[in-house]
Amino acid sequence: MIQSKFYCNVKAFNAVERENYKALTQKLHMARLEVVETEQGYRFRLDPSKISVADVANWVTAESKCCPFFNFQVERAGEGKELSMRLTGDEGVKPFIRSEFRLR
Q1: Domain containing 41: what range?
Q2: In total, how many domains does the chain have?
Q3: What is the pTM of this model?
Protein backbone atom coordinates (compact mmCIF):
# COMPACT_ATOMS: atom_id res chain seq x y z
CA MET A 1 0.00 0.00 0.00
CA ILE A 2 1.34 3.44 -0.99
CA GLN A 3 1.09 6.14 1.69
CA SER A 4 0.01 9.60 0.53
CA LYS A 5 1.80 12.66 1.87
CA PHE A 6 -1.60 14.40 1.91
CA TYR A 7 -3.62 13.58 5.01
CA CYS A 8 -5.40 15.46 7.78
CA ASN A 9 -3.93 15.35 11.26
CA VAL A 10 -7.13 14.66 13.22
CA LYS A 11 -5.28 15.23 16.50
CA ALA A 12 -4.38 18.82 15.61
CA PHE A 13 -7.39 20.28 17.46
CA ASN A 14 -8.63 20.12 21.00
CA ALA A 15 -12.41 19.80 21.48
CA VAL A 16 -13.12 23.54 21.45
CA GLU A 17 -10.90 24.15 18.41
CA ARG A 18 -12.60 21.28 16.57
CA GLU A 19 -16.06 22.79 17.15
CA ASN A 20 -14.86 26.23 16.00
CA TYR A 21 -13.26 24.65 12.92
CA LYS A 22 -16.46 22.76 12.07
CA ALA A 23 -18.54 25.96 12.39
CA LEU A 24 -16.12 27.92 10.17
CA THR A 25 -16.04 25.09 7.61
CA GLN A 26 -19.83 25.06 7.45
CA LYS A 27 -19.86 28.84 7.01
CA LEU A 28 -17.25 28.58 4.25
CA HIS A 29 -19.29 25.93 2.40
CA MET A 30 -22.46 28.04 2.70
CA ALA A 31 -20.64 31.09 1.29
CA ARG A 32 -19.21 29.25 -1.71
CA LEU A 33 -20.47 30.74 -4.98
CA GLU A 34 -18.14 29.11 -7.47
CA VAL A 35 -15.19 26.73 -7.61
CA VAL A 36 -12.68 27.10 -10.42
CA GLU A 37 -9.98 24.53 -11.03
CA THR A 38 -6.54 26.05 -11.51
CA GLU A 39 -3.27 24.50 -12.59
CA GLN A 40 -2.12 23.97 -8.99
CA GLY A 41 -5.42 23.63 -7.13
CA TYR A 42 -8.72 25.48 -6.84
CA ARG A 43 -10.08 28.99 -6.48
CA PHE A 44 -13.18 29.37 -4.33
CA ARG A 45 -15.27 32.46 -5.01
CA LEU A 46 -17.12 33.36 -1.80
CA ASP A 47 -20.14 35.49 -0.94
CA PRO A 48 -18.78 38.28 1.32
CA SER A 49 -22.27 38.82 2.75
CA LYS A 50 -22.12 35.28 4.18
CA ILE A 51 -18.51 35.11 5.38
CA SER A 52 -16.01 37.77 6.40
CA VAL A 53 -12.34 38.03 5.52
CA ALA A 54 -11.64 37.48 9.23
CA ASP A 55 -13.64 34.24 9.22
CA VAL A 56 -11.79 33.03 6.13
CA ALA A 57 -8.47 33.92 7.79
CA ASN A 58 -9.49 32.04 10.95
CA TRP A 59 -10.47 29.02 8.86
CA VAL A 60 -7.11 29.16 7.01
CA THR A 61 -5.28 29.27 10.35
CA ALA A 62 -7.21 26.24 11.61
CA GLU A 63 -6.92 24.30 8.36
CA SER A 64 -3.17 24.90 8.40
CA LYS A 65 -2.94 23.06 11.71
CA CYS A 66 -4.42 19.83 10.37
CA CYS A 67 -3.26 20.13 6.76
CA PRO A 68 0.06 22.03 6.75
CA PHE A 69 0.78 21.01 3.15
CA PHE A 70 -1.84 23.43 1.73
CA ASN A 71 -0.97 26.85 0.36
CA PHE A 72 -3.61 29.56 0.76
CA GLN A 73 -4.23 32.94 -0.82
CA VAL A 74 -7.18 35.08 0.26
CA GLU A 75 -8.21 37.94 -2.01
CA ARG A 76 -10.60 40.80 -1.33
CA ALA A 77 -11.44 43.19 -4.18
CA GLY A 78 -14.10 45.45 -5.58
CA GLU A 79 -14.48 47.49 -2.39
CA GLY A 80 -15.29 44.32 -0.48
CA LYS A 81 -17.82 42.99 -2.98
CA GLU A 82 -15.50 40.19 -4.13
CA LEU A 83 -13.88 37.58 -1.91
CA SER A 84 -11.98 34.51 -2.99
CA MET A 85 -9.58 31.95 -1.64
CA ARG A 86 -7.06 29.92 -3.58
CA LEU A 87 -6.14 26.52 -2.22
CA THR A 88 -3.06 24.92 -3.75
CA GLY A 89 -0.20 22.63 -2.88
CA ASP A 90 2.42 20.32 -4.24
CA GLU A 91 1.82 18.14 -7.28
CA GLY A 92 -0.87 15.57 -6.55
CA VAL A 93 -2.84 17.69 -4.06
CA LYS A 94 -5.86 18.26 -6.32
CA PRO A 95 -7.46 14.82 -5.78
CA PHE A 96 -7.15 15.36 -2.02
CA ILE A 97 -8.82 18.78 -2.30
CA ARG A 98 -11.61 17.32 -4.46
CA SER A 99 -12.26 14.65 -1.86
CA GLU A 100 -12.03 16.87 1.23
CA PHE A 101 -14.16 19.66 -0.24
CA ARG A 102 -16.62 17.36 -2.02
CA LEU A 103 -15.86 18.74 -5.46
CA ARG A 104 -16.82 16.96 -8.67
Answers
A1: 15-100
A2: 1
A3: 0.90
